[in-house]
Amino acid sequence: MAKIDAFFKLMHEQGASDLHLMAGQPPALRVRGDIERVKYKVLTNDDLRGMLYEVTPEEKVKIFEETGDVDFGYEIPGMARYRCNFFMQKNGVAAVFREIPSSIMTAEQLGLPPVISKLSGLPRGLVVITGPTGSGKSTTLAAIIDQANRTRSDHIITIEDPIEFVHKSQSCIINHREVGIHTRSFTAALRGALREDPDIILVGEMRDLETISLAIEAASTGHLVFSTLHTTSAPKTVDRIVEVFPSNEQAQIRSTLSDGIRAIIAQVLFKRIDRKGRCPALEILIATPAVRNLIRESKTHQLNSAMQTGKKYGMQLLDEAIMDLYNKGWISPDDAYQKSNDKSRFRPLLKAPPTDFTEA
């Protein structure tokens, strides 16, 4: 048993999502969104480096020594997998570990709207899950892929950095590929995937122009593609995808994207106040003909109105989802205000509304 496994065991027992280890400081856990210190000695650079290298693949140690950053996956059989990130900081080495549960929860268990499960049955197109780091994007994607795995008879390829949720082939065949181990890059893996007879492709993150371009191409040539971006709303996701391309290509990419897009899900996580745990609020944009036309004609500022009038298709604005959670008594008014888009809507809920410089 590796020395660091004791911290993972503590993390698992406390229900923490992340473990922080830093030279010059004691360990810390993120529990239900908040950082909590662990009663342990201050970690020295040499002790921490030795602890980390005990569980790190040799090739990843080499990358870290050369670049000062590295990502990889680590698993404790029977407990959980961990997404590991090492980085250098002022006092020496540091690391953050995100726990990936060994069991995959369904969309229903996660409290996601019914339309999310339906995305697994799409024949083709692009579905993008967006949100800040730690908002549950990977968990939502895992639920969708699990639904497809149980209900379809297809070939699923996942391309991640590192592999997070591990799916066992059920009705589908699933192949997991990790960037840096099984393939050189997202781009190389996507190019290869188009020749590997996939029906569904999961791209862990659309990081650059080439990856985004290939993902849209795959979606436009008969594949169902799922991926993520770090944006905060559906309209901003469309703009982000388009703006990655040179200005002389943006009109064409808007047209291609409008044909290929099927849904955009923007989500945030909230700490529950009625019981232990967290809950998601989702903004959902479904690509109806009207939505496609707005994207094609560069009228993304009108997409919010389309979501307001598209409830029968399962669409909703993020602020509507947040207000629903508040009305259920699940989240605090302060949290609702902080994570909302239209803060003026939530200010009346606060006992002492702050002076918000972002609204100046």
User: How would the global form be characterised?
Assistant: globular
CATH level-four homologous superfamily name of the largest domain? P-loop containing nucleotide triphosphate hydrolases
Structural class: alpha/beta
Strand content: 25-35%
Whole-number average pLDDT?
A: 94
Overall strand count:
13
Radius of gyration from the CA trace? 21 Å
Major beta sheet, strand line-up: 9-8-10-11-7-12-13
Work out the count of structural domains: 2
Order of helices and strands: HEEEHHEEEHEHEEHEHEHHEEHHHH
- Give the class-level CATH name of the largest domain: Alpha Beta
Low-confidence parts: none
Kindly state the percentage of residues in helix: 25-40%
Q: Count of helices? A: 13
The CATH architecture of the largest domain can be given as: 3-Layer(aba) Sandwich
Might you state the CATH topology name of the largest domain? Rossmann fold
Q: How far is the first residue's CA from the last residue's CA?
A: 55 Å
How can the largest sheet be summarized? Answer: 7 strands, mixed
